[in-house]
Design a protein that fits this description.
With 336 residues, this protein is mainly alpha-helical. Helices cover 53% and strands 9% of the residues. It contains 18 helices and eight strands. The strands form four sheets. The chain has a two-stranded antiparallel sheet. Helix 17 packs across helix 18. The longest helix is centred in the C-terminal third of the chain and has 19 residues. It is elongated, with a radius of gyration of 28 Å. The relative contact order is 0.06.
Length: 336
């Protein structure tokens, strides 16, 4: 494509020869590229007018043959020339248009929005990796709610997540720009399809696990958090470090009455999270080696069961603390 990268100090700059793209049989790449010395022709092949401006830093001349500056002022995303032709050249452009509406808070022109709805065949040829790159930015946009609504109404979402038909996007802008949290919110009405959807777009494993954990934790309702044992059991699932994210997510998902209960319960959960009580077996003051040495046990599944018994009895009885509390629990279990 006649592009070189110039490395200057700590920055890299792409320098590209003016070119004209010819044809696009696969709806993704030009069939051929012709180099040119005509800046306007180079700008004419761009997708949107806000991306079809240029500045000559030597002559200090600003080139804007398609009124991209006017579109910026109007906060409008318009195609360069015929929107149907532009979108047919590259299937990703349809999703990019919606992504720009989310990240910039701009509106699609009437003509471009209509062209997006008619571009699904071309869009279906785009690789899942490129789709996810755009979806990631869309989900984190300042107007993600509107962007996701357009993604839905255009039929584009069904192209890559056909089983997902209960998307929850209303209110998503109120969440922090945390990708796992926004994914959990988006899939909260149909969480069972998230694993397959994550695989379909090849989401990073760490992100998929984090979003899946948040989705699981949304099933923990505040009405069952009044009892100390239940509260500790839930806190173990949520995690001390994930408590505030869980609260924010639940605040948007619950009914007004449930939110009132949540606001009452969160104070209790926050207090519990500051206590030194173990929430997981790994946090107990004893381990399997201690059990075998102290009680003459041999390696077996019984060891794990005894550790779990210790953890849960410590939750039930605040008087059982430390190593001696665990010793008493194990002694009772082995004697029964």
């Amino acid at each position: 494509h006649g592009t070189v990268t110039v490395c200057l100090e700590d920055a890299s700059y792409e320098v590209t020869t003016y070119r004209i793209d010819v044809g696009s049989s696969d709806g993704r790449h030009p069939d051929s590229v012709t180099f040119s010395d005509d800046l306007v022709e180079d700008l004419r092949r761009r997708d949107f007018t806000i991306n079809a401006m240029a500045w000559d830093p030597i002559k200090n001349v600003f080139h804007d043959p398609f009124d991209g500056l006017g579109a910026l002022r109007d906060q409008l995303i318009k195609a360069v020339g015929d929107p149907v032709a532009r979108l047919s050249e590259d299937g990703l452009r349809s999703l990019r248009a919606i992504r720009f509406s989310s990240t910039l808070g701009f509106t699609l022109s009437v003509e471009l929005e209509a062209a997006v709805r008619g571009s699904l065949d071309t869009f279906s040829k785009v690789s899942v990796e490129r789709v996810w790159q755009e979806m990631r930015k869309l989900l984190l946009g300042i107007e993600a709610e509107d962007g996701l609504a357009l993604l839905e109404s255009s039929g584009m979402r069904a192209c890559f997540w056909p089983r997902f038909h209960a998307a929850h996007h209303i209110g998503i802008d109120q969440l922090p720009t945390d990708l796992s949290m926004r994914l959990a919110y988006y899939f909260s009405r149909q969480p069972e399809v998230f694993p397959d959807c994550a695989k379909a777009l090849r989401l990073p494993n760490r992100l998929s696990r984090a979003a899946a954990e948040m989705l699981t934790n949304t099933k923990i309702l505040p009405s069952g958090l009044g009892d100390r044992y239940q509260a500790l059991e839930s806190l173990a699932l949520i995690g001390r470090e994930g408590l505030e994210d869980w609260y924010v997510l639940q605040s948007l998902l619950l009914s007004p009455r449930e939110r009132e209960i949540l606001d009452e319960r969160i104070v209790y959960l926050r207090d519990l999270s500051t206590e030194s009580i173990a929430l997981h077996i790994s946090e107990l003051p004893i381990d399997g080696a201690w059990l075998m040495k102290t009680f003459g046990l041999v390696p077996s599944r019984e060891i794990g069961g005894l550790l779990d018994d210790c953890l849960r009895e410590l939750w039930r009885d605040p008087t059982l603390i430390g190593v001696e509390g665990c010793r008493e629990v194990v002694r009772r279990r082995l004697a029964s």
